Amino acid sequence: RLYQIPFEMPACASDPRTLHLVGDFSAPAEFFVTLGVFSFLYAMAALVLYLRFPSLYAQNKKLPMADFCVTVFFAFLWLVAAAAWGKGLTDVKAATRPDSLLAAMGVCQEEEVVCHPGTTPAMGLANISVVR
């Protein structure tokens, strides 16, 4: 004779919930992209100046120094943006760690339910994006 032990499973399929990550991770990426766009626009403007008006660049002694200062400023901001991108990536890694996700799920907090975290997401390409 087969005995069945009654137990209740959480009604996940009938009660779907959306789990949102805590925090806003878009600001570092937006800063990085905005800086990239401004750097590109400045480089195009400088290229037009170099190629279209070479005599203006050669005759004006303040223009090369101003160009140098703007380039140094963009290089500094690029370093800051890369650090912000790295910090944002670290925050995303912490928020998507399986243990963190399980702690945020209410269904996994019940005594009868056993949740297993699974594997950690692969972040290799994201790490390379910060290094490059």
From TrEMBL:
A UniProt-annotated Pfam family: MARVEL
UniProt-listed InterPro entries: Marvel, Synaptophysin/porin
Keywords: Glycoprotein, Membrane, Transmembrane, Transmembrane helix
Top-level taxon of origin: Eukaryota
Subcellular location: Membrane
Transmembrane segments: 31-53, 65-85
Membrane topology reported for the UniProt record: Multi-pass membrane protein
Keyword Hydrolase in annotation: no
Domain MARVEL: 1-132
CC terms in the record's Gene Ontology section: synaptic vesicle membrane
Family listed: Belongs to the synaptophysin/synaptobrevin family.
Name of protein: SYPL2 protein
Species name: Nycticryphes semicollaris
